[in-house]
Amino acid sequence: AADPANAAVIRSPGKCANGEGEGCDSLSEDNELIRSLQKKSSENREANQREATNAYYMKNYPDVFAVSDKRMVKKMDGSFALFSAVEVKELTQEGKISIEYPMSKGGRIMDLTQKPVLVLNE
Fold first, then answer.
1. Tell me, what's the pLDDT at 40?
2. What H or E segment, with its residue span, contains residue 118?
3. Dist CA 33 CA 25 (whole Å)
4. Model pLDDT for residues 100-117, shown as the tens digit of each residue
5. Torsion of CA 83, 80, 100, 39, to 10 degrees
6. pLDDT at site 38
7. Which DSSP string corresponds to 83-99?
8. By CB neighbour count within 10 A (0-12 exposed, 13-18 middle, 19+ buried), where does 24 fall?
9. Band of pLDDT at residue 51, cut at 50, 70 and 90
């Protein structure tokens, strides 16, 4: 059991996830750097969640569309579309499809655990 004198040290101040929650103020301890990082995390929450979701699917289900001749191609809005192998070849030759190497940590590190993604540049 925790010594009652130290109980306050180990007691959670509340939840703070993605820079949001009732515990964020307490965790920042009036440190402006921590507050600015919490704000940045909050502003990037949707992009970070989308990156994590895409990474999960690409790591765990990379060949989910490898049936018949369909290829999964990422569109500019972040959604995916299916194209035949012939369509992919034609679009690639026209310069409309490029290869993107997945990144993690907000785009700072190349994630080599994932396969490269075909991206439609339109």
1. 92
2. strand 117-120
3. 12
4. 888 887 778 888 887 788
5. 170
6. 93
7. EEHHHHHHHHHTT-EEE
8. buried
9. confident
pLDDT above 80: residue 41: yes
Element holding 40 (H helix, E strand): helix 32-43
Token code pair at residue 73: 């191609």
Strand, coil or helix: 71:
strand
Alpha carbon 117 to chain centroid, angstroms: 14
In this predicted structure, the answer to whether residue 1 has a pLDDT above a threshold of 60 is: no
CA distance 29 to 44: 22
3-state SS, residue 64: coil
Q: What number is the average pLDDT over the span 30-49? A: 91
In eight-state DSSP terms, residue 117 is E
Structure-token match 């059991």, residue found:
1
**In 3-state terms, what secondary structure has residue 119?**
strand
Q: Which strand (E) or helix (H) includes residue 51?
A: helix 45-60
Phi and psi, residue 120, nearest 5°: -85, 120
